[in-house]
Write a structure and sequence with these properties.
The chain is mainly α. It has helices at 15-37, 43-46, 51-72, 77-93, 106-137, 144-159, 170-195, 214-228, 230-262.
């Protein structure tokens, strides 16, 4: 028998949604990883300064396509309302601790939301939350599409964790905390990859070298991550773990209760009087 909690995913990834999500993810991988994939003699490296605008435009369009496709496959008015509430909450949480290394409580909310509401809803929620927070904080720029995509992946990953309908209690919290810890570092790493190729003016041994091979640039990139963002990423990971373990149980319960009451999969009908 299917329990009510097993029917709490607001967005199902149908064939079109999955294809669009794979497409935008493939473009995102190219946008993030082109410095490691491009041949040193290719024209991509020669036009490195134009890359952020090119990929930003493509990612904005493709994220819009993914959002529209997922909406077409079942994102009804109740799910839109839930999306708006969670995105607004995440956007409000992001400025807390701004300027203080790693104090970013938004990440733990994204982990729990993706866990309860599934990967499709998680991807849309992560992207919309990052876009909303950028509008709120004035953080709009060519880096925004990369942030939206990375946060979409981050939140979607929580929805792909095993045992969403059976695992509960301390085991689930430990799983989510472990995921949040690792994903916080992954988010910081991919965002470093988005900006690292354009730090050539530093003229240091950690900057991207368009004439070096993949192995040399990978070593430079790892050194760049350690030198510039390791402390911030560690703080983000620790805060995510602490908040998940301390506040995760009641918030998961509240999200599941709200989702069951919303009955996302039940269509809204109006009876004649």
């Amino acid at each position: 028998m299917t329990t009510p909690e097993a029917r709490t995913r607001a967005v199902r990834l149908g064939p079109r949604s999955l294809a669009a999500l794979c497409l935008v993810s493939a473009v995102g991988v190219a946008g993030f990883g082109w410095p490691l994939f491009a041949d040193p003699t290719s024209q991509v490296a020669a036009h490195a300064q134009d890359a952020p605008w090119l990929f930003a435009g493509l990612l904005v369009l493709l994220v819009a396509v993914v959002t529209a496709t997922i909406s077409e496959s079942g994102l009804g008015p109740k799910a839109v309302a839930m999306l708006g509430v969670l995105a607004a909450t995440g956007a409000a949480l992001r400025p807390i601790g701004a300027g203080t290394a790693g104090i970013e409580p938004m990440f733990f909310l994204m982990v729990l939301s993706g866990r309860v509401l599934g990967p499709g809803f998680g991807f849309v929620l992560g992207s919309v939350t990052m876009f909303s927070s950028a509008l709120l904080t004035g953080g709009v720029g060519p880096w925004l599409p990369f942030q939206m995509l990375a946060m979409g992946w981050f939140t979607m990953g929580a929805g792909l964790l095993p045992g969403p309908d059976r695992m509960r209690g301390r085991g689930e919290l430990a799983l989510l905390a472990a995921y949040g810890f690792c994903a916080a570092f992954a988010y910081g790493t991919v965002m470093n990859l988005a900006g690292w190729p354009f730090m050539g003016a530093l003229a240091s041994n950690v900057a991207f070298d368009p004439h070096a091979d993949v192995t040399a640039n990978l070593a430079r990139f790892l050194a760049y991550c350690v030198a510039t963002s390791l402390g911030w990423d560690l703080g983000r990971a620790v805060v995510t773990v602490v908040l998940t373990l301390t506040l995760g149980a009641p918030l998961l319960k509240a999200l599941r209760r709200a989702t069951r009451r919303a009955a996302f999969e039940t269509p809204v009908t109006f009876e004649p009087r």
